[in-house]
Amino acid sequence: MLLVMTNGLIGMVFGLQWARLDYINDAYPCKQSAAVAFTMFGMMGLPAILGLIYGFLLVDHLSPSFFLALISLILAAVNYGHYRLLITWGVRKWEAL
After folding, report:
1. Beta-carbon contacts of residue 93 (< 8 Å; ≥ 6 apart)
2. Structure-model confidence comparison of residues 32 and 36, the more confident one
3. Average pLDDT, whole number, for the chain?
């Protein structure tokens, strides 16, 4: 659930950062924008990177349950930070478009 929220919030932040308003049809900003590419590939790589970090560095030091709890806490903090960013900077950016 936290990873899904992270995906949505990062997608909104990237969408505001690299807004494309010069599109020809409605599918263009959904399929050919930098925001969508960074969000998709970044969110595909995040679980892989976390798994590699645990598998190579932390498997002898942390239990899987503790690692998942730690990652959940970090994702919750990241989500809160992105939410705060969206309700402050995001509102100003949206109004400036």
Report:
1. 16, 17, 19
2. 36
3. 90
Range of the domain at 33: 2-96
Per the structure, the count of domains in the chain is 1
Among 8, 2, 5, 3, residue whose Cα is nearest residue 35: 8
SS3 track for the chain: CHHHHHHHHHHHHHHHHCCCCCCCCCCHHHHCCHHHHHHHHHHHHHHHHHHHHHHHHHCCCCCHHHHHHHHHHHHHHHHHHHHHHHHHHHHHHHHHC
pTM (predicted TM-score): 0.81
What local confidence, expressed as pLDDT, does residue 57 receive? 94
Query: How big is the chain by its Cα radius of gyration, in Å?
Result: 16
CA distance 11 to 61: 33
The C-alpha atoms of residue 35 and residue 89 are separated, in whole angstroms, by 17
